[in-house]
Design goal:
With about 325 residues, the chain is α/β, with parallel strands linked by helices. The chain is built from ten helices and twelve strands. The chain has helices spanning about 55-60, 85-90, 110-120, 125-140, 155-170, 185-205, 215-220, 240-245, 250-255, 265-270, and strands spanning about 10-20, 25-40, 40-45, 70-75, 75, 95, 175-180, 205-210, 225-230, 230-240, 310, 315-320.
Length: about 325
């Protein structure tokens, strides 16, 4: 992996996104997230469905307005709510690779039009120059130049995701949010897309937030890992540390739920399933949000919300009363 510098390219402080659904009910989708991402780093963001991972990525990029808190890109605070000029400016520096390759591509546009749209909107390049760059990017993501005249329905899922990657990276952004880019793909295709992203990250010096459910995959691709639960970060640390030595009870159960490659070991190991369902993010009660499902719950957990604090190892932070 590329060496990580100490300069954060992205910082969030108390980043919050609430959705008002009427009747004095508020969905706490992202709730007070403070985290930084260093230049040329891959930060893996993991958690169950509904934990707020994708919403966090969209708020960072301005696709959802912030309720409160700040996002800074290279020290410059980003707007609370983007207008067209803001999108024009910041989309050249920050991009997103979306989760579903079947719904994220316009079915009425050809692959060439989809990939080249950013260049037409953001640059003064002529049509032949755009076509040349699109052709180059088709080759870089493992497709063929003559694919630019085809429509999305003529491609497989893996090929569509490669088109989505080319669309995001053709503007050569510095920072990319990868929102579960492999979850809709077959396992064999997942490995191809992961390797492609790794190669492009090395050659372009990209900084990535990689959102996924699969902790083993996130450990493989990431420098650091952040674990999210019900809108909040509960643990952050080096990817190998978090995976092999989880501290937060939620992280520990998540890691334990990963299947073993050897089917004999998988059959014989004890169950580590999380009891119950993730609570509703509507009008969240005080205290630790994992308390009603935690095997180590204590009396304080239902009253006081734990802060995300560093352990003795300053590179590891945990929000848990067992350590606070």
């Amino acid at each position: 992996m590329v060496n990580i510098t100490e300069v954060p390219i992205l910082e969030t402080e108390n980043l919050t996104r609430y959705f008002d659904i009427g009747g004095k009910q508020i969905v706490h989708a992202v709730d007070g997230v403070s985290i930084s991402v260093s230049e040329k780093e891959i930060l893996g963001l993991v958690g169950e469905s509904g934990s707020g991972k994708s919403t966090f990525g969209k708020v960072v990029l301005g696709l959802h307005p912030k309720t409160k808190g700040t996002v800074k890109f290279r020290g410059q605070a980003l707007p609370r709510k983007y207008n067209s000029a803001d999108f024009q400016k910041w989309s050249q520096k920050m991009q997103m690779i979306f989760q579903d390759p079947y719904s994220s591509l316009n079915p009425r546009m050809t692959a060439g039009e989809i990939i080249g749209e950013g260049l037409r909107l953001q640059t003064n390049l002529k049509n032949n120059q755009i076509k040349e760059k699109v052709s180059d990017w088709l080759l870089r993501v493992g497709l063929q130049s003559d694919h630019m005249s085809r429509y999305p329905h003529e491609f497989s899922g893996g090929q569509r995701q490669r088109i989505g990657i080319a669309r995001a990276l053709i503007l050569e952004p510095d920072f990319v949010v990868c929102d579960e880019p492999i979850s809709a793909l077959d396992v064999s295709v997942q490995a191809q897309v992961i390797n492609l992203l790794g190669d492009l990250k090395e050659t372009m010096g990209l900084t990535l937030i990689f959102i996924a459910h699969d902790l083993s995959m996130v450990r493989y691709v990431s420098d650091r890992m952040a674990v999210m639960y019900l809108g909040s970060i509960v643990e952050v640390g080096k990817a190998d540390q978090v995976y092999f030595d989880p501290k937060h009870p939620y992280t520990n159960i998540l890691v334990g739920s990963n299947p073993e490659p050897d089917p004999r070991e998988e059959r014989n190991r004890p169950s580590t399933a999380i009891r119950g369902e993730i609570p509703s993010p509507v009008n969240v009660a005080p205290g630790c949000r994992f308390a009603n499902r935690c095997p180590n719950v204590e009396e304080i957990c239902s009253r006081v919300t734990p802060n995300l604090l560093p352990l003795k190892d300053v590179e590891r932070q945990v929000a848990c009363h067992l350590f606070n």
